[in-house]
Amino acid sequence: MNLSPGISIKGQHRIQGDVLFDVNLDIPGGLWTCLLGRSGVGKSTILRIILGLETGGAFEGIFRATDGASLNGRIGYMAQSDLLLPWLSVLDNVCIGARLRGEPPSEARARDLLRRVGLMEHTDQKPATLSGGMRQRAALARTLFEDRPIVFLDEPFSALDAGTRADMQELAAEVLIDRTVLLVTHDPAEAARLAHQITVMSTRKVQNWPVPQTKALRDINAPETLACQSKLLEYLRGGTA
Ligand SMILES: Nc1ncnc2c1ncn2[C@@H]1O[C@H](COP(=O)(O)OP(=O)(O)OP(=O)(O)O)[C@@H](O)[C@H]1O
User: Which structural domains are found in the chain, ordered by start?
Assistant: First the structure.
């Protein structure tokens, strides 16, 4: 049985009375959906609506899990900003969710994830002593540690160099296999590599985009990955694709 439900969202979001976007989107359970679109179009807002967070506007519509159960407590979220607590060590930041819930965190698992994101030597450091890319990897480890059936990732690899980015994509794909993942990204190559569903958002519509027929996680240099990446980039730049 797939324990990671899909999500459907349908409605309209307004900011100060103006329509920011109309959305009618099915996010399939147990698969990766990559959400792309121009800056400011409302990608993060879709995540925040489903998470019940402040958006600065009002959403009129419905969203629900496909299994009919509440989404409360089932979504892991990695925001664009890392939201690391400056007074805690990297290790304690990874474990913070469990501690706040009054659960004893598995420090061994936290350390293993920090090793896998390349921060084994930095577990006792405070976030302020890390580079931007290291902070982003600490935030990724914290999100993976939460082990939720649904995971929202908002530009999770944006601060990473190309090699580390490929490594972290592979790690996330492995750890989050069979989870429902909604990944916001500006990188067509990332979407072409990771997605089971690609969704492109504009002010007019939210539409699905053809994904390569091959199995994700795809080879970066496979012809179908490169073709998808190139067509997507052309479309996002305003071409006709
Ligand atoms: N708290 C808020 N109050 C008022 N307006 C907001 C708030 N949050 C977002 N907005 C506005 O909503 C719009 C969509 O923002 P959102 O962050 O969802 O865009 P995005 O597509 O994720 O952009 P980017 O790719 O740059 O991250 C923007 O015009 C933004 O200014």
Answer: 1-74+149-241 (3.40.50.300), 84-147 (no CATH)
